Structures are given as structure tokens and as C-alpha cells.
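TICKET: design request
STATUS: open
ATTACHED STRUCTURE:
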């Protein structure tokens, strides 16, 4: 078993988890990933390393609760343990020799781009970092990125952070200004990486992209993670996950990425119902807690249902005054009912978000072709609509 040392919500959708795995922590390098399984009935999923501490023996992963397993993973807390945590898998990113680099992270891909930017900085490379998100509320790891970057910029689709646009816009501008990059590294939605590669190709800049196709075993046996690179099919798990961005067949990667979308949606819906059921089960525990001061660890989306069921909720002054005026036993029961209601609402919100995530991804898939046409007509900036529709795949956390 692999103990979970800490769990932190980076935003409403994304969780950072530190897992104790000393053997992996000593060996894993930027770009490599692990395969985990929550319990004996769980599925295996790949997640790329976000950070590691060889001395402490820990590996940090960052993931978005968009599928059945990551939804379940987000309900775990410090003190819980994972059944399987296997790695390091894949090849480390080939960063040696770079003197001037730009690292581009899209959405959750920012968490995977961070250790690569950090490695480059630590080995004498001047690093610029560009990250992109749908909206300011989803921005993650801004302080960590600024700490390792020579300069950095965060773009948002809606401009809610003051920088409206897509990641290729500052990349093109910095290239035109003479940045002199000898390496560009892109991690994020496939459509984003496609347009980053299109931006660098005319300038002959070495460009690496990190691919996260469907993956089952992570050792090259199943063939599920095949990607078309330079006209031949390679395995992302053993040949990658990083590839020459100018040789990747992105359209083929996007087609393969949606092959099981129907099944994924069904699994997501089933998990949302399961988490809602667990939140309802917590109603009874909440009542018991009110009577004896115990605790309830209900599962919930991004930890919100768990927090609502586990601790005292914040009530307005008028309600608190009403509770204070009640008999103590009655006040405990009323507070327990309010806490249970909060748990149910959080679980319902989790189910609704999961359903929206599935619908949003389907919309993005439908617009891939039109996005490609827009890019052809308008260059890198023409990828705007596609980037706004792109969603971070569960995959290895990108």
C-alpha cells in the first residue's frame, strides 16, 4: 500500500496529492509517469509526476476529477492509501543541452510542465513559461511557475485575469522579438499542442509535445496507447510520452482519443451517482456526530461534500442566533440536518459538473475540424476557438 501524505484542492476541479513511494521518488524524472490503482476493483490510470522529494520519499501528482477513477481519487484524504502505485514509467523528457527554452502548459498540463521548467532552470537554462486556462478561477501553480521562469504569462480564454487570448499569441510574439529558443515544450490538450507546433515549425525550433492517449498497462503490451509519429505508429508508454511535435499526426490522436467517449460518459455518470449515494449515507453519520462529537468522512466532488459532512458549516448570524435560542439537543439535530443538506447539495453539484464535463468534451470534439480550418486561415491566432473548447484529458493529468 502507498500512503497518501497530503491532499490539496488547487481549484474546484483540480487536486494535488502527495503519495509516499520512496523507491519511485529516488528514480523518477520530469516527463515520466506512474500507473495507480485505488483498490482491488479499481482501474489502472496513468498520471504524470508533478514533483518529487527523494529525501522525503514522496511523489506528487495533480489530477482533474473528470472520469470515474479521478472522481473517486478526489474523495481520498491524508491517511488513506493507494493499492498500486507503479513507476517510473515512460522516458524522461530530453532536456539536456537546452540553453533558451519556452515551456507551454495548457490547463492541467501546467502541472506536468512545471517539473520540466524547474529542471531546465536548475541546469542553467533560461526558461520562459506560458500557461493557458479557460478562466481565472481555474489557474493553478502560478506562484510555482513564477519561481522557476525568467518570464511568464498566463492567458485565459475569457480574459478574466486581464490577458485574453491563447498560448500561441505570446509564443509567436516572443519568437518575433528574438527570444532565440532552442527548445519549445508543450503539454496540454492535443489541439493546443498542434498549434504550438505549427507556430514553431516555420522557425525550425526543436519542439517536444507530451501525448496522453488511452493507456492500459503502461509497459507496451496492450497497444492501446499507439500514436502516429512520422508516419509510423509508436507506443506512448514506452516510446514516449514525449515526441517531436513536428512529426505527430494530431488529427489521428484526436480521433483515437474519443473512441470510448460513450463508455467514459456512462462510467462518469455511475460514479457521480455512487458519490451522491455516499453523501446521503452520511446523513445518518452526521446525526450521530451531532450527538457524540464524532466525524464523518463522506466522499464528494473535489472534497467539498467531504468537508461539508466532516466539519461545522458556516451559518449566517440569524440562523446561529436561532440555534443558540434552542434547547441544546434540538440545536444539535437541526445543525446536523443542515450539514446533511450541504452534503447532498455538494454531491448533486458533483454529478452536474461531471455531466457538463462530458457534454463540453463532446462539443470540443465536434469543433476540431473547424478549428483546424481556422488555424489554416489565420495562423496561430486562428486556434483561439479550438483552444477555448479544448479540455484537459484525464489521461496522465493533462
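STATUS: resolved
RESOLUTION: sequence designed for all positions
ATTACHED SEQUENCE:
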Amino acid at each position: 500500500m502507498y500512503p497518501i501524505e497530503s491532499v490539496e484542492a488547487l481549484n474546484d476541479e483540480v487536486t494535488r496529492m502527495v503519495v509516499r513511494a520512496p523507491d519511485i521518488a529516488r528514480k523518477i524524472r520530469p516527463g515520466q509517469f506512474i500507473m495507480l490503482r485505488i483498490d482491488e476493483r479499481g482501474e489502472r490510470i496513468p498520471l504524470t509526476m508533478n514533483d518529487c522529494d527523494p529525501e522525503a520519499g514522496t511523489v506528487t501528482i495533480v489530477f482533474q476529477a473528470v472520469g470515474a477513477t479521478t472522481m473517486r481519487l478526489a474523495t481520498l484524504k491524508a491517511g488513506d492509501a493507494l493499492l498500486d502505485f507503479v513507476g517510473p514509467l515512460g522516458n524522461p523528457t530530453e532536456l539536456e543541452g537546452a540553453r533558451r527554452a519556452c515551456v507551454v502548459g495548457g490547463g492541467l498540463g501546467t502541472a506536468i510542465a512545471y517539473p520540466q521548467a524547474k529542471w531546465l532552470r536548475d541546469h542553467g537554462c533560461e526558461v520562459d513559461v506560458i500557461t493557458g486556462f479557460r478562466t481565472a478561477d481555474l489557474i493553478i501553480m502560478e506562484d510555482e511557475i513564477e519561481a522557476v521562469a525568467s518570464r511568464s504569462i498566463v492567458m485565459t480564454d475569457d480574459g478574466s485575469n486581464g490577458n485574453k487570448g491563447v498560448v500561441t499569441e505570446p509564443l509567436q510574439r516572443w519568437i518575433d522579438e528574438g527570444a532565440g529558443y532552442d527548445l519549445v515544450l508543450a503539454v496540454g490538450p492535443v489541439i493546443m499542442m498542434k498549434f504550438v507546433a505549427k507556430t514553431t515549425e516555420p522557425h525550425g525550433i526543436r519542439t517536444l509535445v507530451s501525448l496522453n492517449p488511452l493507456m492500459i498497462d503502461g509497459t507496451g503490451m496492450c497497444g492501446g496507447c499507439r500514436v502516429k509519429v512520422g508516419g509510423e505508429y509508436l507506443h506512448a508508454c514506452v516510446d514516449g510520452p514525449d515526441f517531436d511535435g513536428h512529426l505527430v499526426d494530431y488529427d489521428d490522436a484526436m480521433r483515437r482519443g474519443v473512441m470510448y467517449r460513450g463508455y467514459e460518459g456512462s462510467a462518469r455518470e455511475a460514479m457521480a451517482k455512487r458519490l451522491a449515494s455516499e453523501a446521503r449515507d452520511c446523513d445518518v453519520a452526521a446525526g450521530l456526530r451531532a450527538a457524540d462529537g464524532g466525524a464523518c468522512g463522506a466522499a464528494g466532488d473535489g472534497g467539498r461534500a467531504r468537508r461539508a459532512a466532516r466539519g461545522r458549516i458556516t451559518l449566517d448570524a440569524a440562523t446561529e442566533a436561532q440555534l443558540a435560542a434552542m434547547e441544546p439537543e434540538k440545536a444539535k439535530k437541526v445543525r446536523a440536518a443542515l450539514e446533511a443538506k450541504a452534503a447532498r447539495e455538494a454531491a448533486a453539484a458533483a454529478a452536474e459538473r461531471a455531466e457538463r464535463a462530458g457534454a463540453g468534451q463532446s462539443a470540443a470534439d465536434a469543433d476540431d475540424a473547424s478549428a483546424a480550418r481556422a488555424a489554416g486561415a489565420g495562423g496561430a491566432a486562428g486556434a483561439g476557438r479550438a483552444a477555448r473548447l479544448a479540455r484537459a484529458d484525464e489521461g496522465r493529468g493533462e
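CLOSING REMARK: The CA atoms of residues 287 and 333 lie 6 Å apart. DSSP finds 14 helices and 15 strands in the chain.
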